[in-house]
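Students often ask why inverse folding is considered easier than folding. One informal answer: many sequences map to the same fold, so there is more than one right answer. In these notes we will look at a single instance of the problem. The structure comes first.
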């Protein structure tokens, strides 16, 4: 790997670093990601959980996904910046919100999921593999 993945929140009270290569990068158009990101989708870089180190206070909000499994969304307790997604469906990985990276241009999403929930006005990258819901 050329360099570690680094990032943090808007106010700077939470910083993180990952020393491993990403597992995958995804655009998710589910309603939970829309609501937590404030836009048409959430773009997340999944990394090995054991390789992610963070400092600062992160609060988590837990929801039950459409699959029935739990997902916890982590955000800065001071400024509210969305930072992480911790899902029961991927116990060894953690999602890092791509907008919180110091360099969000380093990674490009490979797939689009939950496209059935994408708003009609949303730009859904047609060159990426697409799934109406969660891939099996």
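Output (designed amino acids):
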């Amino acid at each position: 790997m050329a360099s570690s993945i680094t990032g943090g929140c808007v106010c700077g009270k939470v910083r993180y670093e990952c020393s491993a290569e990403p597992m995958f990068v995804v655009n998710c158009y589910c309603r939970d990601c829309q609501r937590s990101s404030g836009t048409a989708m959430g773009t997340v870089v999944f990394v090995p959980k054991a390789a992610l180190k963070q400092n600062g206070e992160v609060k988590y909000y837990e929801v039950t996904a459409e699959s029935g499994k739990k997902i916890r969304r982590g955000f800065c307790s001071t400024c509210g910046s969305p930072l992480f997604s911790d899902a029961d469906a991927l116990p060894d990985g953690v999602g890092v919100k791509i907008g919180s990276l110091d360099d969000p241009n380093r990674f490009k999403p490979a797939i689009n999921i939950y496209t059935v929930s994408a708003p009609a006005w949303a730009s859904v990258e047609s060159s990426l593999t697409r799934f109406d819901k969660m891939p099996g």
